[in-house]
Design goal:
Shape: rod-shaped
CATH superfamily of the largest domain: f41 fragment of flagellin, N-terminal domain
Strand content: under 5%
CATH architecture of the largest domain: Up-down Bundle
Order of helices and strands: HHHEEEEHHH
Strand order of the largest sheet: 1-2
Distance between the termini: 17 Å
Number of strands: 4
CATH class of the largest domain: Mainly Alpha
Helix content: 55-70%
Radius of gyration: 40 Å
CATH topology of the largest domain: f41 fragment of flagellin, N-terminal domain
Number of domains: 2
């Protein structure tokens, strides 16, 4: 009969405490199920919150780095396309030089015609080299040197790629129409010298194309690696932050039953002191 006291209803107090704990658990379950997150604020899991933020930051960094690398690929493709056009022009210039160097059949009119076309091609090379750009950044005029491309989530040299694209102007290729080493096909002698100059230029451009092509392959490999890395980071982040719906719905169902029984038991416990009245009859 120790429970038959009036001033302090210990049974009701215990039932209330249990009901309050169940209510808190149920509120947490509802919050997680409605948001899909088991960590919404740092209070939910301080250590987990810190880890989750670090994972999210790195994942976002990888996404930006992927975009950077893809932009780098587009830049390289722009330069490569222009270099391919210049190589094609140089091949035509080589044919003109070989034709003009054939003194046995060359005539003044044919040499003049070849020179006019040769000069036009020289101008075309300079036009391509000086106007090829990615956005507002010139690529083939010699100004694109040691440009940093951020291809990682952190600030260190291993996650930064330095890009340089050599100049492809007629001056840089040593096939310019003016200057101390002017190249022309207007005479047999100059055409013979032009053959060597143009063929050297062809080799130079081919080397430039090989260099930018290798860089493009490197960037594409970086994109593939970053994509896999980001997927793994997102998986780790989801495993830490996202709620396990199967587990939480089971917990929620249990909390609902405990809530109903708790309310019922609290009501019953509150009625116990009234039994004292029967002792007073």
């Amino acid at each position: 009969m120790s429970s038959l006291i009036v001033n302090n209803n210990l049974d009701a107090l215990g039932a209330y405490n249990n009901l309050n704990a169940t209510d808190n658990a149920m509120t947490k379950a509802i919050s997680e199920l409605s948001s899909g997150l088991q960590i919404q604020t740092a209070a939910d899991n301080p250590a987990g919150y810190v880890t989750a933020e670090a994972l999210q930051s790195q994942s976002n960094g990888y996404q930006t780095a992927i975009s950077n690398a893809q932009n780098g690929v587009s830049l390289i493709q722009t330069a490569s396309g222009a270099l391919n056009q210049i190589a094609s022009i140089l091949q035509t210039m080589d044919s003109l030089a070989l034709n003009s160097a054939n003194g046995a059949t060359a005539t003044t009119s044919s040499l003049n015609a070849n020179q006019q076309e040769f000069a036009a091609l020289q101008n075309q090379i300079d036009q391509i080299a000086n106007t090829t750009s990615y956005g507002t950044t010139n690529l083939l005029d010699g100004s694109f040197k040691n440009e940093a491309l951020q291809v990682g989530a952190f600030n260190n040299t291993n996650q930064q790629l330095s890009l340089t694209i050599s100049a492809a102007t007629t001056g840089a290729l040593a096939v310019a129409s003016t200057g101390g080493s002017a190249v022309s096909v207007g005479t047999v002698a100059s055409a013979q010298a032009a053959i060597t100059a143009v063929q050297n230029a062809i080799q130079t451009v081919a080397s430039q194309e090989a260099s930018v092509g290798a860089t493009q392959n490197q960037l594409q490999a970086i994109v593939a690696n970053l994509t896999v890395g980001q997927q793994n980071l997102q998986s780790a982040y989801a495993g830490l932050v996202d709620v396990n719906f199967a587990q939480m719905t089971t917990t929620f169902s249990t909390d609902q039953i405990l809530m109903q029984s708790g309310v019922s038991m609290l009501s019953q416990a509150q009625q116990v002191p009234s039994l004292v009245l029967k002792l007073l009859k």
